[in-house]
User: What shape does this take?
Amino acid sequence: MMNSTEQQAIFDTWLREHAAILHHVANGFATGADRHDLMQELMLAVWRAVPAFRAASTPSTFIFRVTHNAALTWKRAERSYRRRIDSFQELQVPEHHVEADSAASTDALELLYGAIRSLDPLDRSLVLLQLDGVSYAQIAEIHGLSESNVGVRLNRLKHKLTATLQEKTS
Amino acid sequence: MTFDDLLPAWNSSRNAPDPAQLERYKAGIAAHLGKEYREFLWHIGMVAAVTLFLAGGFVQYVRSGGAFDFAKEWGSLVFLLLPIGVAAWFVRGFVRHRQQHPRYDLSIKEGLRALIDENRLSRARLRVSMGVLTGAMALLPVITYQLQLVGKQRPHEAASMLVVFGAAYVASMAWQLWKYRRRLLPENTRLQALFRSYE
Assistant: This one.
C-alpha cells in the first residue's frame, strides 16, 4: 500500500518529466477555457493512477494511457463547470509577450491543434500519440488495437490532416 | 502546408506547458483533493451517526422488553429487510463486475469495455432501487395499519409517517429518474459510440 508522501513524490517526478504529454492532450481535446477543466481532469487522473503503476510498462507509456483514457471519456461537468472555470481563470498567469519569431510557431501550432480537434476522439488520440513520438507498437498496446490497424489508421489520418491543413491555409 | 511541415512547431518550446501555470494547477489539484477528503469524512461521519442512532434505538427497544409479534407486524420486518436485500444485490453486482474485468487497465479499449459494463450496472441498480422504493411505499399503508392494530402507533403519527416517507419517495424517485435519463443514458450512448470506433 502506497502512502501519500510516496504518491506525491512520484506524481511530482512524473509531472516534471512528462507534463508536455498532459499539455498536448489538453490542447488536442479541448479549446478555450475547457482546456483548464480538462487539464485538471488529466492531472487528477494521473494522481489517482499512481498507486496502480506497475513497473511492467514505462512511466511514459502508463501516463499516455491514463491521460488519453481520461481525455476520451472526459465530459464537461456542466453543474460545476462555471465555478471551476472561474477558479482556474484566477489561477492563470498573465499572457507572455509573444516574440515575432515564435508567433509564427504559435500560429502553426494553433492550426495543427485545430485540425486535430476536428477529428473523431479516437483519431485525435492516435495522431497526438504519433506526434509525441510513440511507436506503433506502443500505440497498439495503449489502445488495445493491432499494430497493423494503428498503421493503417495513422496513414489515413495523415492524409486527412494534410487535406484539412491545406484547405485552411489555401 | 502538410502535416510534416508542422512537426517543427510541434517540437518547439512553444508547445510545452508554462512551469508557473503548472504550479498553479498543482495548487488547484491539492485544494480539490483536500475538499474531496473533507467530503469523504463528512459522509463517513453521517453514515456512522445514522447507524449508531438506529442501533441505539434497537438496543433500547430490546432492553425495554419490546415485544414483536411476527404474525401481526411482519410488514415492518419486510420494510427493514428490503434495503439489506438491495445492498446485498448491489455488492454481488459489484463483485461480478470486478471479476468480469480483472484487467480493465490493460488498454483503453479494455477500460472502455469495463466502463460500458459499469454504466449498465448503474442503470440496473437504479431500476431495482426505484422498483424496491415503489414496493416499500405500497407496503407503507399495511405497516401503519399493523402498527395501529397492535397499539404501537397513533393515527396522527401514521399521518406524519406517510407524509415524510411520501415526500422522501417523490424526491428520491425524481433524482433517480433524472440521473437515469440525463446522465447514464447519454453516457452509455457516448461510450458505445467511442467503443464502436475501435471496431
About this structure: Residues 4-169 of chain A form one domain.
